[in-house]
Design brief:
By secondary structure, the chain is of the alpha/beta class. It has three domains: 21-128 and 323-333, 2-Layer Sandwich (Nucleotidyltransferase, domain 5), CATH 3.30.420.40; 146-318, Nucleotidyltransferase, domain 5 (2-Layer Sandwich), CATH 3.30.420; 346-553, Orthogonal Bundle (Hypothetical protein af1432), CATH 1.10.3210.10. Helix content is 47%, strand content 17%. It is built from 21 helices and 14 strands. The protein has helices at 71-90, 102-106, 110-121, 130-144, 182-189, 197-220, 235-248, 263-273, 278-282, 295-309, 321-332, 341-344, 346-357, 362-379, 388-400, 412-421, 430-441, 453-456, 461-479, 516-533, 546-553, and strands spanning 21-28, 32-41, 46-56, 95-100, 125-127, 152-157, 162-167, 172-178, 229-233, 260-262, 313-316, 488-496, 501-508, 536-545. Strands 8-7-6-9-11-10 form a six-stranded mixed sheet, sandwiched between helices. It has a five-stranded mixed sheet with strand order 3-2-1-4-5, with helices on both faces. A hairpin with a 4-residue loop joins strand 2 and strand 3 (46-56). The protein is elongated, with a radius of gyration of 26 Å. 46% of the residues are buried.
């Protein structure tokens, strides 16, 4: 079993013994679909991989004219996912977490494909951004290698994108994702077999140029005297390591985790691969299925990255995105308490980072978020049945609902949608970001309507219902701090099902404040809430301030 973290980790939580948990993670990559099934020991915490599945589907082989995923490949992908589900069932998995990356992100029909997967298989697939993909790759590598309290540069060469990361034992400092991958460059730049000198030159030049910005960002964030090693992960790099091991020693190691090869050896291998045809590369002993077609482009990406970074060698890590998905799940479910405390708060930190970027008044947003959470909690189980996950999305939207003021006061709710949607909120899936942005969009003015393009982007009825109901709650929360001075300290909500009525008791902060503007705004905005939940909302200002009420009760 590979420890999730090194044995030297101090502060292991002393809790009652918990049962092992078996979960699966699926990565819908541009080249292949992969699944790992793991056994989590929550007492350590560690996880061991008990099964791996892979199928080369080539989602990245899209329609050249429209950029859409091809129907025959969609059919193949769904069949593979169905088989993965059956395998997972044999291990009695508790849950399957699935993520989709570059090919699905960039396809016009990508979301339709994911909706089809959910409809046919009942499998929910999260679409994640390039930066979020990089963050989870970092988590996967951190779970599989000892960092020795030193920074590491991590490169993951996928089919459609290459992630370059700078991180240490505590945090990922830089997360980048570049639209170059082994499948993408092969399909776009290679037409000759073996590759011609002219095409090979263009391949090198293009990879070099595309990587420069990410490399510059990584190198600019190194501290003086830091000399991090380069860690490589992905099928491309493992294949190159396998070829290197066969040719240098004739022995294939039982694991490639920690295996190293040099830039000098890589350059020699690239020069040999470029002279071989696809069929000749396929005949190389141990070459994985269909890897021969794309191995040259992947090797060139690694070669150019190492050259730009000044790295003379690369160390292989067998853990990557799929394992990072597992670690992220463990973090969100409270199974890792100390080692990655910084990472466990990644959602909150990135919401606050975005809020500060767009000069949001955090004191005001905190109050709105507190009102929204209070109303959410008090109406849970009566007016709605959403859980903590949806409550977190409401919190994020409340914190960011006013960020559109950074662009313009006019239609700032629409600007908020755009800024949130494009703000790279790490820790959230693309669907979750879409929901947060829509919630902020509807904190004022028109309620959600089917004709609105942003509302149409929500593919399921459940997602649209989350936005419709929680945005109605957010409207009330915003009204409760209309003057943005904290005039109202607290609200209590009482629901009378026989009358279909909600009574809202409003406690003022100062006994001499009539809170007229807040009450007027509540009355003005309550119509959307009333229509959405089918109730009548009656708000009453309590005679005393909250402090006075508490002292009288005592």
């Amino acid at each position: 079993m590979l420890n999730l973290f090194s044995a030297s980790w101090e502060g292991i939580p002393t809790q009652p013994v918990k049962q092992h948990r078996i979960i699966a993670a699926i990565d819908l990559g541009t080249n292949s679909l992969h699944m790992v099934v793991v056994n989590i020991d929550p007492t350590l915490p560690t996880f061991s991989i008990i099964a791996r599945e892979k199928e080369t589907v080539r989602l990245g082989n899209r329609n050249l004219t429209t950029g859409e995923l091809k129907p025959e490949i969609i059919k193949k992908a769904i069949a593979a996912l169905g088989r993965f589900q059956e395998v997972a069932k044999t291990f009695n998995t508790e849950t399957i977490i699935a993520v989709a990356t570059s090919a699905v992100r960039e396809s016009p029909n990508g979301k339709d494909f994911l909706h089809q997967v959910e409809t046919e298989l009942g499998l929910s697939v999260d679409l994640i951004s390039g930066q979020e993909e990089a963050r989870r790759i970092y988590l996967g590598v951190l779970s599989g290698m000892e960092f020795h309290n030193q920074p590491q540069m991590i490169i993951d060469i996928g089919g459609g994108s290459t992630e370059l990361i700078l991180g240490d034992s505590h945090q990922a400092r830089i997360l980048t994702s570049t639209k170059i991958g082994a499948v993408r460059l092969t399909s776009e730049l290679i037409t000759t077999d073996p590759i011609s000198n002219a095409e090979f030159g263009r391949l090198q030049t293009y990879a070099h140029g595309m990587l420069e910005r990410s490399v510059d960002e990584v190198l600019a964030n190194l501290q003086l005297e830091e000399s991090p090693r380069l860690v490589g992960t992905s099928g491309t790099i493992e294949t190159l390591a396998m070829i290197h091991a066969r040719e240098k020693s004739g022995v294939i190691p039982s694991t490639f985790n920690g295996y190293q090869f040099s830039l000098k050896d890589l350059r020699e291998l690239v020069n040999r691969l470029r002279k071989l045809s696809n069929s000749e590369r396929a005949a190389i002993p141990g070459m994985p299925d269909k890897r021969a077609e794309v191995i040259l482009a992947g090797a060139v990406i690694l070669q150019e990255a190492m050259t730009l970074l000044g790295s003379e060698s690369v160390t292989v890590c067998e853990r990557s995105l799929r394992e990072g998905v597992i670690v992220d799940w463990m973090l969100t479910h409270g199974l890792i308490e100390d080692k990655l405390r910084y990472q466990s708060s990644v959602r909150e930190r990135n919401v606050l980072k975005l809020a500060k970027k767009y000069h949001v008044n955090l004191e005001y947003s905190d109050r709105v978020a507190a009102f929204a959470q209070s109303l959410f909690d008090q109406t849970q189980g009566t007016l709605h049945h959403w859980g903590s996950d949806e409550g977190q999305l409401l919190w994020a939207a409340a914190m960011l609902h006013n960020c559109g003021h950074y662009v313009s006061h006019s239609s700032h709710h629409k600007h908020s949608y755009y800024l949130i949607r494009n703000g790279e909120l790490l820790g959230y899936t693309e669907t979750e970001i879409e929901i947060i942005a829509n919630l902020a969009r509807y904190h004022r003015k028109s309620p959600p309507k089917k004709k609105h393009e942003n509302y149409q982007s929500l593919l399921t009825k459940e997602q649209r219902q989350i936005v419709s109901q929680l945005s109605a709650i957010l409207r009330l929360a915003v009204a409760l701090d209309r003057r943005q001075i904290g005039a109202i300290a607290q609200v209590q909500c009482e629901y009378y099902p026989q009358l279909r009525q909600c009574n809202l008791m409003v406690f003022r902060s100062q006994s001499d404040d009539d809170c007229a503007l807040e009450l007027w705004n509540l009355d003005y905005k309550k119509g959307v809430f009333e229509e959405e939940f089918g109730v009548k909302l009656v708000a009453n200002l309590e005679k005393y301030s909250l402090a006075s009420s508490l002292s009288r009760n005592n």
